[in-house]
Amino acid sequence: MADVDGDKLHQLVLKMLGDLGGAFSVPTVRIGCRLGLFDSLHRDGAATPAELADRLGLAERYVREWALAQATNGYLTYEAETGRFSLSPEQAMIFAIPDSPFYMPGAFECAAEMIAGQPKVEQAFRTGEGVAWGDSSACLFCAVGAFFRPGYVNSLIQAWLPALDGMVERLEAGADVADVGCGVGFSTLLMATAYPNSRFTGYDFHAPSIEQANAHAAAHGLSGRVRFETAPAKEIPSGDFDLITMFDCLHDMGDPRGCAAHMRAMLKPDGAWMLVEPIASDRPEENIKSPVSRLFYNASTMICLPTSLAQEVGEGLGAQAGEAKLRDVIAGAGFTRVRRATEGPFNMVLEARL
């Protein structure tokens, strides 16, 4: 056996303890979100475990252990003098304010769903086959929608669409928009609310997602101006769209090149295709240094790659494909102008035109 560097081993063990502490927090954070524990501390103020349990009709002994776990995680603040637990403003941004750009409960839901899907993905390692979207675990699509929603709420109207040349003015005047791979419809409904003169159709190949999207549209009173339809990207009826949007899904498609060619056929000559994709370098050696890439590579292993390999062609771009690979896919379909319109900590936004 090669000589072991004791210092390096010690540092690695410390790192693993931190990682495992985060992993062990997944079920307790989910309980705190689902039972309203974080919300109550944010809404009603600091509380002892007994007070918090009384507010929510829960068992005090469980609440006490949960609160100590979250204080140890750094997710709650503990005041030893009073025995009360509270949420700091920063902690509230992550756990109790749904429209915060840093609201993260959806990420914990994704982690749980990836663990639930492990047996099917593990089998796919042996066969090389894929795992169809929606088949790996009970509500992965719900968790993914919740994970991406804060980014859409805080960036889509404020930064991403304004970064496209002349598109805001067209949307304000009245444009036809296709949101391809719309999932449960959060992105589509945000755009429809912001631009009431435009018409929006969301498409997704996953029927349960479209069912939820239609329910969300009805709940927001937008059913008359927003439509959601179940259709694979390459089977969407040809149309004259001013704008096609695609949020975090091109890399999930089995045939992204065929999809890109179909987007070209759907677009008006002066229209734009906006692609939001996970941010990544073209060089793996740079990505592996990034905590964001760490999330995306693991999610890609469990979600994105199996989803692509379950479809025809099965190119398997992965969530860290990088801009050069994406440009190759887009340009290969006949788009002559591709640029990075803007970016954020988690995403790059590409604008493609004919």
Automatic annotation (TrEMBL):
GO biological process: methylation
Alphabetized InterPro entries for the sequence: Methyltranfer_dom (IPR025714), SAM-binding_MTase (IPR053173), SAM-dependent_MTases_sf (IPR029063), WH-like_DNA-bd_sf (IPR036388), WH_DNA-bd_sf (IPR036390), WHD_Rv2258c (IPR048711)
Stretches of the chain forming a coiled coil according to its record: none
Pfam families per the UniProt record, alphabetical: Methyltransf_31, WHD_Rv2258c
Domain S-adenosylmethionine-dependent methyltransferase Rv2258c-like winged HTH, first and last residues per copy: 29-94
Single Gene Ontology MF annotation: methyltransferase activity
The keyword Iron-sulfur is assigned to this record: no
Keywords: Methyltransferase, Transferase
Domain Methyltransferase: 173-279
This protein's record includes keyword Methyltransferase: yes
Name under which the protein is recorded: Methyltransferase domain-containing protein
Origin species: Sphingomonas horti
Organism lineage: Bacteria, Pseudomonadati, Pseudomonadota, Alphaproteobacteria, Sphingomonadales
